[in-house]
Amino acid sequence: MSRTLQVSRILAEIVAIVLLAEVATACLLPLLAPGAGPIPEPWLHGVLVVLLAGPLVVWRVRRAVRPAAASAVAERNVPRGRLVGAMIAAIVVGCGVTALAVDSALALPTLLGR
């Protein structure tokens, strides 16, 4: 399989994982927190999406990287800590973007004068 096709497939699978996590969150959130107010509800939504999609995305990326990483390690010594650090950084950045999105969503009615 060509490298471009493989990257496109992985991207499509990650988008599908996040979409399914988002749909599951939209269905589960009213059952898990029926009386959540306007401030905690977006935070709960973001946390639930991360908890559902995060492990699946990490698993999918690790499965895709494994054959390439095995040959790269055979050619040169790549510290395993770099890969772990990159995954942790991706999760932290994702949580930060979610927090910014939630904050801007909460501030939007104020900005619109509602």
Written overview of the protein:
The protein has three helices and no strands. The chain is mostly helical. The termini are far apart. The relative contact order is 0.10. It is elongated, with a radius of gyration of 18 Å. Helix 1 packs antiparallel against helix 2 and helix 2 (40-75) packs antiparallel against helix 3. It has one domain. The longest helix is centred in the middle third of the chain and has 36 residues, at 40-75. The protein has helices spanning 3-32, 40-75, 80-112.
Give the helices and strands, then pairings.
Elements: H1 3-32, H2 40-75, H3 80-112
Helix pairs in contact: 1-2, 2-3
Tally of DSSP helical segments: 3
Distance between the termini: 53 Å
Q: Mean of the pLDDT scores?
A: 77
Low-confidence stretches: none
Provide the domain count: 1
Query: What string, H for helix and E for strand, traces the elements in order?
Result: HHH
* Share of helix, binned: over 70%
Shape, please?
elongated
Computed CA radius of gyration, to the nearest angstrom: 18 Å
What's the count of strands?
A: 0
Q: Could you tell me the strand content as a percent range?
A: under 5%
Biggest beta-sheet profile = none
